[in-house]
Design brief:
Elements: H1 2-7, H2 11-38, H3 48-75, H4 83-87, H5 96-117, H6 124-131, H7 133-148, H8 155-194, H9 242-254
Helix pairs in contact: 2-3, 2-7, 2-8, 3-5, 5-7
C-alpha cells in the first residue's frame, strides 16, 4: 500500500471517494431490503429470513466502507483532514456544511448498527424508534454525497444514484400502503370483536289454553233420522220430525257458555 502510494500520491483520495460511494449505495440497498422485510411485501420469494439477513449484512457492510472512507480521508494529503475534522461537525475548513452532513450520518449509522446488535436487550419500542433513524441517516448521506461528491458529475454515478433513490421511495410507499391496509383490517376485526352479542331471548311459548269448566251433564245424544223418511230438507214442505225438535230443545238447555 505504501509503495502504491509513492507511485500514485492520489491513491488515498481515490480510495476515500470509492469508499464513500460504495457506502452510500450499500445504505440505499439496506434501506430497500429493510422496507421490503418490514412491509411484508413478499412472504415466499425471497424468503423473509433471507431478506432479514441480507438487510443486516448490507447495514454492517456499509459501516465498514464508512470506516474505510474516513480512514482514507485522514491519510490523504490532498485535503488536510485530521481526526477532529472527520469526527466533529463544522470543524473542517473545506466545505464545513457538507462535511457536517456526512459526520452526522456516520453517527446515526453507528447508533443504528449498535442497537441492532443488542436489540434483544432493549425494549422493542426504544429499538424501533432508533431504527427509524435509518431514513434520516440515508437522507443525510444523500445530501453529503451530492454536496461533496466529486464523482456526482459522472453521468453513470448520477444514474445509479437516481435509480437507488427511486427504488427506496417506491418501496417506502408500498410499505406505508401495506401498513395502512393492515391497520384497517385490524381495526375492523377489533370492532367486530368488541361489538356485544345479541341477547338470547327466551323461546316463544304458546299461550295457555283456557281452563274450561268440567261438563256437569252428558252431551246430548246424536239424533238419528228415521230410516223410513224419504223427504230431504231441500224439498218444499219439509219439517223436522218430533224427535229432532225434542233433541234441539234439550241441547239449548245444556250448551256450555
Amino acid at each position: 500500500m505504501l509503495a502504491a502510494t509513492k507511485l500514485n500520491p492520489n491513491l488515498w483520495w481515490y480510495l476515500a471517494r470509492a469508499g464513500g460511494l460504495v457506502a452510500w449505495a450499500l445504505l440505499a440497498a439496506s434501506v430497500f431490503w429493510g422496507l421490503w422485510y418490514a412491509g411484508r411485501l413478499s412472504r415466499r420469494v425471497p424468503p423473509r429470513a433471507w431478506t432479514l439477513d441480507l438487510h443486516r449484512f448490507l447495514g454492517g457492510l456499509a459501516l465498514i466502507f464508512v470506516v474505510i472512507h474516513v480512514v482514507a480521508l485522514t491519510a490523504d494529503k490532498f485535503v488536510d483532514f485530521g481526526a477532529l475534522q472527520v469526527l466533529v461537525p463544522f470543524a473542517s475548513q473545506w466545505r464545513p456544511g457538507a462535511v457536517a452532513w456526512g459526520i452526522t450520518a456516520m453517527y446515526l449509522l453507528v447508533a443504528v448498527e449498535l442497537t441492532s446488535l443488542v436489540m434483544h436487550l432493549m425494549p422493542k419500542k426504544v429499538w424501533h424508534s432508533i431504527h427509524l433513524l435509518s431514513f434520516v441517516l440515508f437522507a443525510f448521506a444523500t445530501v453529503h454525497a451530492i454536496q461533496t461528491g466529486t464523482d456526482m458529475r459522472n453521468p453513470l454515478v448520477r444514474a445509479l444514484g437516481i435509480l437507488l433513490l427511486i427504488s427506496a421511495v417506491v418501496v417506502a410507499i408500498l410499505r406505508v400502503g401495506h401498513g395502512w391496509q393492515r391497520a384497517q383490517g385490524s381495526a375492523a376485526s377489533g370492532a367486530a370483536a368488541a361489538r356485544p352479542a345479541a341477547p338470547a331471548w327466551p323461546a316463544a311459548s304458546p299461550p295457555p289454553s283456557p281452563a274450561w269448566p268440567a261438563a256437569t251433564q252428558d252431551p246430548p245424544a246424536i239424533v238419528e233420522w228415521p230410516a223410513t223418511s224419504r223427504v230431504t230438507p231441500t224439498e218444499p214442505g219439509w219439517s223436522p220430525p218430533r224427535e229432532y225438535a225434542a233433541a234441539t230443545a234439550t241441547t239449548a238447555t245444556t250448551t256450555r257458555p
